[in-house]
Amino acid sequence: MKHKKSKVVKADSILIIIITFIVLLLVNSVRWVNSAWEDVNFSTIMFQMHTPLNGTNSEIVHSYFDSCLPRTIRGTLVITGIYWLLKCFGNNLSFSFSIIFFNLKTRLHVGESKKVWKWIYKIYFLGMMASYCLICYINAKNIGVFEYLHNISNKTTIFEEQYVVPESAMLVFPEKKRNLILIYLESMEITYASEDVGGGKPINYIPQLTKLAQNNVSFSGSDQLGGGIVCRGCEFTMGAIVGTSSGVPFKSMIAGNSMSEYAQFLPGLITLGDILESEGYSNYFLCGSEAEFGGRKLFYEKHGNYHIQDYLYAKEQGYIPQDYHEFWGYEDAKLFAIAKTELEKLGNSGETFNYTMLTIDTHHPEGYFCELCENQYTEQYANAIACSDRQVSEFVSWIQTQEWYENTTVILIGDHTSMAPDFWDDIGDYARRTYNCFLNLPEGMSAPYMKNRKFTTLDYFPTILASLNVEIEGERLGFGTNLFSGKQTLLEELGKEYSKELAKYSEYYVENFEKGKNTEVR
């Protein structure tokens, strides 16, 4: 009997430790997300959990383990240690005492005192677990766990009602097609500019990008500089790429599917790459990390047959040493140097090209401080932003000196708003928007409707095509509206309900995009 009892006690001890560890790990994990990622949404976390981790910045992984595991282990030891001290103390308790209350005398005997003490250590443990569960609930609410659960349990018909299928018959390309250089600027928002030009900061951290936007076409929600609203499904890089390339938010995780289930990435979706490839363009994608991360390689290869020029490509071509690794792969200074070499080849080849790039140095939490950066500000993130501002401007200036520039549209787009923490105390209630700038538009093309617009980053899809002098029947593709036209965007037409509906579960999305077999432009 004693042997059996010791087994029960041992199993009970292990169970207490496991429960405590799991609860504390959940609490610390959610706390870490809230502290390390600004305005992150749970759908983004679900997406990252279902995609390859190849090429992930090791600093982020280390930050998670360094922050969560030690706290979880220490907390588990303290809580279970106190629990077992209370339990042992109660089991070995041997005394009796009297309680006198309003002349009523009650004597608590030894056996009864042990029963009371048993409730004390049980209540202690349950109380601790309940407190931590409440903390976990509050933090989970902050990152949108319950919003996510609401969205996957509520269906929308907005795709059936509003989605415009991009068909070749709707698109008329010019006889002489224009090249495209599309640069996604990591976490670049107009917020970094000063308040006097439409930004949200007392200091202008992006003076060069500000000048480019002021002197060219930059769509805005006000009469100053502004930018696009980031809707659900577009708050992270891969979602931003999908949204701006197809006019559709990325919802695979909301639909409950992992990309690993499919050999293709949203095979039924028609994207910018698909359209340009069907028109004879050669598509390229350059980034300073492993393109496999987040499904970028799969997306670009399956939608437009892009030539992938990532961190691995740079090593293969001898652009960087085999053992070189900085930040996510290599820094933007090398990215722009590689881009110049590759673009010179393309310019001399005579082929019509779409050269898409993705910067990285302004990635949260603090950005990357390279040899070109200056210590202008106290925060490293501010210095990384200012450095990126100078590098992008210098690269654009270089493009403008090339012979092929005359027939090339250059577009700068912030992929999403920044997730960096602790950088927004001085912006008040400023509504953060992504940066955009369209340079070297076709001759005679103007943008009379670029100010005081309500639009999302989904509207960039038809707008990018329009900037290549493509005529679009109806001025809409996907959920996007050509911002060069006077046609209302869906956000202007439908209001706030538009964004809410986009976030909900869609059977149309699953059947036509995720399970769809057609990858050709019809």
Description:
The longest helix is centred in the first third of the chain and has 35 residues, at 2-36. The chain folds into two domains: 2-150, no CATH class; 167-514, 3-Layer(aba) Sandwich (Alkaline Phosphatase, subunit A), CATH 3.40.720. It has helices at 2-36, 42-49, 58-91, 110-142, 145-152, 158-162, 207-215, 237-246, 272-278, 296-302, 311-316, 332-349, 380-399, 460-466, 490-494, 496-502, 507-514, and strands at residues 97-101, 104-108, 171-172, 179-185, 282-287, 307-309, 353-358, 408-414, 436-439, 471-472, 476-477, 480-481. Strands 6-5-7-4-8-9 form a six-stranded mixed β-sheet, sandwiched between helices. The chain has a two-stranded antiparallel sheet with strand order 1-2. Helix 1 runs antiparallel to helix 3 (58-91) and helix 12 (332-349) packs parallel to helix 13 (380-399). 43% of the residues are buried. Strand 11 and strand 12 form a beta hairpin. The chain contains 17 helices and twelve strands. With 522 residues, the chain is an alpha/beta fold.
